[in-house]
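FIELD: query
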Amino acid sequence: MKHYINKAAIAKTQFNSRSVSLLSYIVHPVKEGGVYIGKIYSNKDLVEEFKLECTDECGEKQVNIDLASFNLYDFAGRGQKTYQVSQGGYVVFYDSKYNNEYRLRLEKLSKSERGKVDFDTSKLEKGDIYSTVFLQPGQYEAKFSGNNDKSLKIMVEYPEKPDFRQRNQAIVPEQVVVNEKGFDKQDIKMLPGKGLVFLFEGSGDIQIKMVKPYEKKPVQTPSTPPAKPEKRKKKILKKVHWENPKYRQNK
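FIELD: result
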């Protein structure tokens, strides 16, 4: 199996909660029981469908839906997959392979509420979760459509020295609450690869972009050049001819 590096994902500097990609995922709580039709959109085009069954009989509190597992070009096999989750459980949408951005919708499938949109990633509601990961160091700015007056400054610092404490800090993600007043924090400092989780208590979407790339600090050179190391003197080995005294007497 060949391994490859997704350069587009590493170089990504813009994120939004309207879609799911390789570096982000969205969590949605399913509060009402029933059958839902999930729809996956690429831009404005419908590329795949699936079925989600939410019942009390199902013991699964969480179901993970990997968008990379769908064959988005197989139109004949559209809508073949079915997922199950218990009522009040959570649905996690993510992409484990590709860096494409997909928008998702959940529509209630019933005679009285047929076509009712229960969930749409273009506008996250209370209880939804959006998480992303930054790989490029630099200064980012996040804005919430529910309150454009306030923004969140995100400083992704470059790890200068390998430190175990920094490595442990990168494991625990940062959490930010989003409501009608905006973000509950004004600025965040974090390391590349650390997750940033937004907990929605209001409705809207989040836009994140880099405003200032990382600038490497110049290396300070000493005013006086370092002294040159002394050259080692070569050792002179004297050749000594040794004669066996017994051999000389017999001779």
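FIELD: remark
The chain has a mean pLDDT of 85.
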